[in-house]
Design a protein that fits this description.
The protein is an alpha+beta fold and 155 residues long. It folds into two domains: 52 residues; 78 residues, Immunoglobulin-like. It has two helices and seven strands, in the order αβββββββα. The strands form two sheets. A four-stranded antiparallel β-sheet has the order 4-3-6-7, with no helix packed on it. The longest helix has 36 residues. It is elongated, with a radius of gyration of 26 Å. The two termini are 20 Å apart.
């Protein structure tokens, strides 16, 4: 009986110690239409400051370039007759972090904002899943013990 509890405890310890957040540096890019505003931020909400921004037209030619401000935003005026832009954002202070998006002004409801669950909510949900798994493991161990020792009491 003691070995089973030690095994269960050791297994849960391994599971809890091996889990990490893998999307800490995911980059998101959103935009607004009046004056096209690009906003770049990492997963968790940290804005991407001083990132290089390149905007390409429908033909793949460079239309405008610049850098994001302190809030991770970059604005540029839309060109009349141009309906689609390809935006590429490179974080200069964190090499390898790049985000891309296509802005299509002809699509209905082109707001560009994609709601995402905040980081703290994802962390809490992850702990909830782990507690559920631990509960299921303990219920299984209890069922095995009841089955094993329940037969001995009946004899």
């Amino acid at each position: 009986m003691k070995k089973e509890w030690m095994f269960a405890f050791f297994t849960m310890f391994l599971i809890l110690s091996c889990i990490s957040v893998a999307s800490a540096h995911r980059m998101h890019v959103v935009h607004k239409i009046s004056e096209i505003e690009i906003e770049a931020y990492f997963g968790g909400g940290t804005s991407v400051k001083d990132a290089d921004v390149k905007v390409y037209n429908e033909d793949g030619n460079l239309y405008v370039e610049g850098t994001t401000d302190e809030e991770g935003k970059f604005r540029f005026p839309p060109k009349i007759g141009m309906e689609e832009y390809e935006v590429v954002v490179n974080a200069t202070h964190m090499p390898g972090h790049k985000g891309e998006t296509t802005i299509n002004l002809s699509q209905e409801g082109a707001g560009g904002t994609v709601p995402e669950m905040p980081l703290y909510t994802r962390v809490i949900a992850g702990f909830g899943y782990l507690i559920g798994i631990a509960g299921a493991a303990m219920a299984y161990i209890g069922w095995k013990q009841k089955k094993k020792y329940g037969k001995a009491e009946k004899d």
